[in-house]
Amino acid sequence: NPHLEKMREDILYHFALGTGTHDFPVLFGDVKFVCVGGSPSRMKAFITYIAEELGLGSPGCDYPNICAGTDRYAMYKVGPVLSVSHGMGIPSISIMLHELIKLLYHAKCSNITIIRIGTSGGIGLEPGSVVITKQSVDATFKPQFEQVILGKTVLRSTNLDEQLAKELMQCSKEIGQFNTVIGNTMCTLDFYEGQGRLDGAICLYNEEEKLQYLKEAYDSGVRNIEMESSVFAAMCNLSGVKGK
């Protein structure tokens, strides 16, 4: 964003961080990997796990929330890994990504990989399977993210890094603990009707119609459903950041 250069100070409001109050290159300049997920507690558990795996932490070590000045998001860091919560749904992760990408820019980070991890609803898979997203598709199975900007509808690509998908699949084969597939991830605007559930407060379709829709999704290459992947893919593409 060229407008950032004209700003005396950039305040990342929802992170409770700012270029006038924090030294971004010192705090985050060594970051190479960012893992994001919905829940603050899960992202803290993740950074504790990754610290142990990388041999960068001691048993029982606590990791402070870098965004403790706000209750919107939580952020944890160990070595070159940043772990950030994004809440639930496209609007929430979109706000987080705007500020995260600016944080990485101000910190002068390079060659960054961002990976979204989290639960999702599988289609045609055994529970506990891992889906590596090839591309995010909307509820009509199109690989696009639709956003209205200044009253105009803008369509953005939601393809994700193909080489990174292959590398993650190879990691899964080496670990050998999870059934892992590469497939399309359907991103919806809602947890209930948007995903064909029958147990929401409102439901104007029947089980047969639901199952037909899920079959169409599967036939189009969809293997799981969640609510954040489309804007995640679009913003990674626009920012030139490798994402998955």
From TrEMBL:
Phosphate binds at residues 72, 116-119. Its EC number is 2.4.2.3. It catalyses: uridine + phosphate = alpha-D-ribose 1-phosphate + uracil. Gene3D superfamilies: Nucleoside phosphorylase domain. Pathway: Pyrimidine metabolism; UMP biosynthesis via salvage pathway; uracil from uridine (phosphorylase route): step 1/1. GO terms for cellular component: cytosol. Signal peptide: none annotated. It holds the Pfam family PNP_UDP_1. Residues 32-242 form the Nucleoside phosphorylase domain. Keywords: Glycosyltransferase, Transferase. It is an enzyme of class 2 (transferase). GO terms for biological process: nucleotide catabolic process; uridine catabolic process. CDD domains: UP_hUPP-like. It comes from the Eukaryota. GO terms for molecular function: uridine phosphorylase activity. Substrate binds at residues 195, 197. Belongs to the PNP/UDP phosphorylase family. Catalyzes the reversible phosphorylytic cleavage of uridine to uracil and ribose-1-phosphate which can then be utilized as carbon and energy sources or in the rescue of pyrimidine bases for nucleotide synthesis. Shows broad substrate specificity and can also accept deoxyuridine and other analogous compounds. This is Uridine phosphorylase.
